Amino acid sequence: MEIIIQPTAEAATKIAARLMARTIREKPAAVLGLATGGTMEPLYRELVAMKLDWSKLTTFNLDEYIGISPMHPQSYHSFMCEKLFSKVNINIGNVHIPDGLAKDVPAACAHYEEKISAAGGIDLQLLGIGTDGHIGFNEPTSSLASRTRIKTLTPQTRKDNARYFERAGEVPFHVITMGIGTILESRHCALLAFGKNKARAMAEAVEGPITSMNPASALQLHPKVTVFLDEEAAVELKMKDYYRWVFEQKPDWQKV
């Protein structure tokens, strides 16, 4: 696991964007795993500004709310269209987002897994992290071998996401999310976390034990993870000086 700590979220985001851009340029038909949320908005702005060729890419989003229309302003379908897809030359037929209105949710989840496999697997998976350590919507106690499925949001996650809705009561209780096992099969994972409210979760995920109580800690099992943090999100890391040293001493061929 590579930990990249930058003075600001903006600086860390720019490096993350360069990593994604390199993936797209080196493999024009890459399969990208995409995420939503406030952390991702600046990243998508950076990628749009780079004017990359998205025409051959395939994308799979991590999750979607159950019970709201794709046209709902707070659906992740709407988020991705507004923040990214409407601004790049992506083939909409290659875009995949879980169906929150599926009549048979377990079947829809199994089909999503099949589509990821048929596409050849995910080359680069973007991730954020919740204040409780969740990745995707894999809440604490999620199986570390889990696949795409329905999950019930914790009260804390619903509270954290309420700012995006007109009323807190509108936040759905259920979601479809890629599982931790699904995420770990990606060839490369890139996690972005900014702000003091993410510091405890990140310290536990990076330097704590591997445990379902902090789902992001499962990334310690992955052979290629890059973590992008600002100073505030890194404040509780015991080895932060070493992580900075490693980044500064990288050979040219490893630099992003």
List keywords for this structure.
16% strand; 10 strands; globular; Rossmann fold; 31% helix; 8 helices; three-stranded antiparallel β-sheet
Question: Can you describe this structure?
Answer:
- This protein is α/β, with parallel strands linked by helices and 256 residues long.
- The chain has one domain: Rossmann fold (3-Layer(aba) Sandwich), CATH 3.40.50.1360.
- The chain is 31% helix and 16% strand.
- It contains eight helices and ten strands.
- The strands form two sheets. The protein has a seven-stranded parallel β-sheet with strand order 1-10-9-6-2-3-5.
- α2 links the parallel β2 and β3.
- The two termini are 15 Å apart.
- The model has no long low-confidence stretch (mean pLDDT 97).
